[in-house]
Amino acid sequence: MLTTIDSIKEMLGNVRLRHSMTILDEILENATNNALSYEKFLESLLNREIKSREEKKFERLMKQAGFPQHQTLDEFDISEQESLSERQLNQLKELTWIEQGFNLILLGPPGVGKTMLSIGLGIHAIKNGYKAVFTTMNDLLHHLKTQEIVNNARTRIKRMIDADLVIIDDLMFMAMEKHEANLFFQFINRLYGQTSIIITSNKGPEDWGELLGDPAITTAILDRIVHRCEIVHLSGDSYRLKYRTSIFGSN
């Protein structure tokens, strides 16, 4: 025969308050030991349930985002950047640009922190309730070309279309064929007006014609990306070279 506590746990499970079900004994013991009122007991239980759900949501969104590594904005050393002020970084942290539908283009040579900054902003966005997805340009083209026949690719593209923020890393990594450029334009067109985009590149928009090939497609893509856009030039020494490790140690 079920005890009253067992019955309550069963009911919590039935209404999908599963975390509350697992911590009920702990919360009851704390309420008894501290002579909590019924209101405070319930408040404590629901706070823990909400916190658990927020943590699980964050973990799910992080997994779906597909970041290559976990790098927060705290790890981005603003003192290394002469071209980006702390005030400007704080403005980016406010995320109003996502609400306003702005895009970001992060420019600079390899190793100056473009990808690190984009990942940090993506993680920060997720922590603040937005959906973000990270992709390299190479992976994006692969998914675009295979989405009609590969379920994983179709799911990945749908996730990007539904996101609040899409990060496209290494735009100038490789030149595109005309069919790929067309697919890329169609993708950008679907994001236009509903999803913010961060693009990292070692070349400015004026040179993207080399990548996209077709002048008409280049103009159409630029028109949609640069319409509401902030271009951030990152400079300085390569993080990877400056902080590299050696198999020979420091001697």
Q: How many helical stretches?
A: 12
SS content category: alpha/beta
The average pLDDT value, as a whole number, equals 86
Distance between the termini: 72 Å
Low-confidence stretches: 238-248
Sheet with the most strands: spatial strand order:
2-3-4-1-5
Tell me the name of the CATH homologous superfamily of the largest domain.
P-loop containing nucleotide triphosphate hydrolases
| Count of separate structural domains | 2
Which class of the largest domain in CATH terms? Alpha Beta
- The CATH topology of the largest domain is what? Rossmann fold
Percent helix, as a range, is: 40-55%
Strand/helix succession: HHHHHEHEHHEHEHHEH
The largest β sheet comes out as:
5 strands, parallel
Walkthrough of the structure:
Residues 238-248 have low confidence and may be disordered. Helices cover 55% and strands 10% of the residues. The chain contains 12 helices and 5 strands. With 251 residues, it is an alpha/beta fold. The chain has helices spanning 4-14, 18-33, 38-65, 86-94, 96-99, 114-127, 137-146, 151-162, 178-191, 209-212, 215-226, 239-242; strands at residues 103-107, 132-136, 165-169, 196-201, 229-233. Strand 3 (165-169), helix 9 (178-191) and strand 4 (196-201) form a beta-alpha-beta unit.
Write the layout of secondary structure elements.
Blueprint: H1 4-14, H2 18-33, H3 38-65, H4 86-94, H5 96-99, E1 103-107, H6 114-127, E2 132-136, H7 137-146, H8 151-162, E3 165-169, H9 178-191, E4 196-201, H10 209-212, H11 215-226, E5 229-233, H12 239-242
Parallel strand pairs: 1-4, 1-5, 2-3, 3-4
